[in-house]
Design goal:
Layout (H helix, E strand, L loop, with lengths): L5 E14 L3 E15 L4 E5 L6 H9 L6 E9 L2 E2 L2 H7 L4 E4 L12 H6 L7 H11 L16 H13 L5 E5 L7 H16 L3 E6 L2 H7 L2 E6 L2 E7 L10 H8 L42 E4 L2 E4 L8
Parallel strand pairs: 3-8, 3-9, 6-7, 7-8
Antiparallel strand pairs: 1-2, 1-4, 4-5, 9-10, 10-12, 11-12
Helix pairs in contact: 4-5
This protein binds adenosine-5'-triphosphate and nickel (II) ion.
The site of nickel (II) ion has 5 residues, from helix 1.
Amino acid sequence: MENPVLEVEDLSISFTQYAHGAGRRELPVIRGLDLTVRAGEISAVVGSSGSGKSLLAHALLGLLPYNAACTGVMRYKGQRLTREKMEALRGKEMVLVPQSVNFLDPLMRVGPQLARGKREKGVKEKIRAVLARYGLGPETEEMYPFELSGGMARRVLISSAVVERPVLVIADEPTPGLDGTAAKRILGHFRELADQGTAVLFITHDLELALTAADRVAVFYAGVTVEECPAADFGRQAHHPYTAALWRAMPGNGFVPIPGSQPYPGREEAGCPFAPRCDRRREECAGTIPVRREGRDYIRCVREGVVP
Ligand SMILES: Nc1ncnc2c1ncn2[C@@H]1O[C@H](COP(=O)(O)OP(=O)(O)OP(=O)(O)O)[C@@H](O)[C@H]1O
Ligand code: NI
């Protein structure tokens, strides 16, 4: 089989903080993150707010702030992603659909913004075609970001990311503020990209959306990937207790709330971060948690997993 487009192995990210008088402090926010994305596939990363999803996106593109330290391995088409490589790929083969529409330049019309200074022949046509694909007419090219509705701005962000036919699209919460139909349409566009051979990393807090849109799902909790599995497996196979709880919290599956809340980043203690909220916890959950693998799938839990 071909190399995956993207492989992330045991990625950890921590921030160095300088407190007044107290010297330096390391704040670990992501620990032991694993993930693969293949060409033609949509891989979703699901996690609640603050679980480290955007940090992952920024780490992959070399956009972490200066006080962030990153360990582990990131590979693109089988090769280590070095800083130089990220810079060479960014905005070309590897693109970000950012979480915030504030990433649009407020002082630049949409057309020139998508052209990124390129003037060669065919650029105008390419931009027109990509906008049309997302239901935006040529008049959009003349607009400034403040003239766009929320949904239009989202579609402009996506258009901007895919003008150059990227190999890997990293979409960080591409659908907030959109109604169900608009969100599904956007996800339909990602499926088209995947069908043309693009690898798509789809970041969302919405498990239901991930399951309808993605081929594979990685579940984050407090900066740890607790599970990676095929979307089609959901509700049938055994899962990590957190994944099972997320499943049961879905409106169609009982709407059962998960008691408690996700711990803040910077937890120093070992063990499973979900243990305090887990109805299946055991003593071993405080120790080192084994990773149970089966092919590309895995669960990070002391037990085999639970069928929700
Ligand atoms: N520069 C920074 N310094 C210290 N901590 C940070 C920094 N940037 C992010 N964090 C922390 O890292 C954690 C993960 O942040 P991240 O933005 O990746 O979350 P997220 O999963 O994308 O959440 P959301 O769904 O709200 O977008 C958060 O708790 C955040 O406070
Ligand atoms: Ni985010």
